[in-house]
Amino acid sequence: MASFLRSWIPSYPNAKAESKSTPQVEVDETADDSGSETEREEDHTDEPPAFPSLNSAQRVKTKTSPSSSQKSDAELMPPPSLPPNLNPNLASRTPGMSSSTLGVPSSSSLGVPSSSSSLSVQSTTKPPTKPSGRNKVALAPGHSPLDWAALKSSGADLRGVPTLMRITPSVLKQHNKKDDAWAAFNGKVYNITPYLAFHPGGEKELMRVAGRDGTKLFALTHAWVNVDFMLDSCMVGFLVPERSS
Ligand code: HEM
Question: What PROSITE patterns would the database entry show (predicted)?
Fold first, then answer.
C-alpha cells in the first residue's frame, strides 16, 4: 500500500510526519502488505464473527462436518418436479414424440434423476382452474375501475333518488330494466344502472340481479369485492320486509 502511494504522492515518505499539517493524506500503515501484524493479531481473539449467529444451523453444520464433506444444494434437496414436456409419465406427452425430437434436452442430460428414482417428486395436484361462470369482459374505453372511482367521487348523482328509502322486495322488483336497475346486497339497495358499463364481469351478469336480492350470487362470484365501497354513491335505501296489511 505504501509503495503504491509513494508512486502517486512524491512526498509520501514525509506524509506521515506531516500528517498533522496535511490531514487529507492520512494513511493506515497497518494495511500495508508487509506492514505490522496489528490487524491480524486482533483476529486471534476468541470472539466469533457477528455472522453467522452463534446458534445458526450454518455454524453448527460447519463444526460437525468438515468442509470437504459438505454437500451441494443439489445433493441436499430433491429436484423440482419435471415440467409436463419433460416428464415421460404424464399423459400430456405428445404420442410418438420423444423429448429429443421436440428439441428439448432429455431429463438425463439435464442431470435430473429419472422419475423412478426415490428422489423424484411427482405432483398429483391439478393446475388451478377458474371457477365456472367467472369471465372478465373487455370494458369500453373510459370504463375502467379507475374511471368508475373518478365518477363516484365526482359528485354526480348516481342514486336517482333524493333520500334514502325503505324498499320492499315488491318495490325492488319494479326496478329491473337496464336504464332503471336496482339490486340489494347485504340489506342495502343500490342503483346499479350507472355501474353496468363499468362492471368487469359484464352488463349481462350484473343484470341477473336487477330487481332482486343479489347477496347470494354476489358472494358466490366474488366475495372479496367490497360492494359497499364500490357502490356507496349509488345507494338508494334499505331492503325491508313486505308490510303485512
Ligand atoms: C353490483 C354489484 C357488483 C359489483 C360492485 C361487482 C364488481 C366486480 C369487480 C370489482 C370485479 C373484478 C373482480 C376481480 O378482478 O377480482 C367483478 C368481476 C366479475 N363479476 Fe362482479 N360485481 C357485482 C355483481 C356481480 C354479479 C351479481 C355477478 C353475477 C354473476 C357478477 C359477476 C362477475 C363476474 C363473472 C366477474 C368476472 C370475474 C373474473 O373472471 O375475474 N358480478 N365484479
Answer: CYTOCHROME_B5_1, CYTOCHROME_B5_2
The answer, yes or no, to whether residue 37 has pLDDT greater than 50, is no
Beta bridge partners of 23: none
The atom number, within ligand 1, closest to the CA of 227 reads 5
Position in ligand 1 atom list of the atom nearest CA 195: 1
Strands (E), the chain: 165-167, 176-177, 180-185, 188-191, 212-213, 235-239
Q: What letter would DSSP give residue 52?
A: S
Handedness of CA 172, 175, 176, 181 (dihedral sign): negative
Residue 199 beta carbon below 6 angstroms from any ligand 1 atom: yes
Q: Give me ligand 1 centre to Cα 222, in Å.
A: 6
Measured CA to CA, the distance from residue 178 to residue 206 in angstroms comes to: 10
DSSP 73-85: HHHHSPPPPPPTT
Q: What average pLDDT does this structure show over 189-211?
A: 97
In a mutational test of the pocket of ligand 1, which residue from 199, 207, 216, 236 has the highest number of ligand atoms less than 8 Å from its CB?
Answer: 199
| Residue minimizing CA distance to atom 36 of ligand 1 | 201
Ligand 1 neighbour 200 (Cβ under 6 A): yes
Using a pLDDT cut of 70, give the percent of the chain over it.
48
Q: Is the CB of 218 under 6 A from ligand 1?
A: yes
**Cα–Cα distance between 71 and 27 in angstroms, integer?**
43
User: The C-alpha cell of 124 is what?
Assistant: 398429483
Residue with cell 351478469: 205
